[in-house]
Specification:
about 160 residues; alpha/beta; 5 helices; about 30% helix
Length: about 160
């Protein structure tokens, strides 16, 4: 994939985020970190206070437990939504193409929060987890990435 000078790339998952900008050119990209964040999110078992509650059936001796919320996943989803806000701000501050790299779950949450500026300038979404990789390796993977031939930008409403 070719990344024009100034292209903004966000690499995220449910707990880490790197915001990168291409300071090089399309032939020799040079991604630089312009922002990063992380979330300390302990496992769900450490976030729950006690056993689930029990309900009694109004007829008969049956009992059932209430389903426990997945606090860990809730926090990851909130983090992904916050990452999208960082991307929205980057889109407002820069008139550049945007690339989003995130695993499927995080990508799905982020898509729900895209605004018109992101939809207009988004050139690629990559369903991968690159958050644990160094920037030079991310650059190499993006350069070698073959975008889908039929990738189209989001339709922008005209009214």
């Amino acid at each position: 994939m070719k990344l024009a000078k100034g292209t903004i790339v966000i690499v995220a998952d449910g707990a880490r985020m790197m915001l990168l900008r291409n300071d090089g050119n399309a032939v020799n990209p040079d991604l630089k970190v312009i922002g990063q964040d992380s979330l300390k999110n302990p496992p769900n078992r450490e976030q729950l206070s006690d056993a689930p509650g029990i309900s009694f059936s109004s007829q008969g001796p049956e009992r059932s437990a209430y389903e426990q919320p997945d606090r860990h996943q809730e926090r990851e989803d909130k983090f992904a939504a916050a990452v999208t806000q960082v991307l929205i701000q980057a889109a407002r501050d820069n008139d550049a193409d945007l690339v989003v790299v995130a695993p499927a779950g995080s990508l799905g949450v982020m898509r729900q929060h895209y605004d018109a500026a992101i939809k207009e300038r988004l050139i690629a979404e990559i369903d991968k987890d690159y958050t644990g990789l160094p920037v030079d390796e991310i650059t190499g993977l993006l350069v070698r990435h073959e975008p889908r031939a039929a990738y189209t930008r989001f339709p922008v409403p005209t009214d």
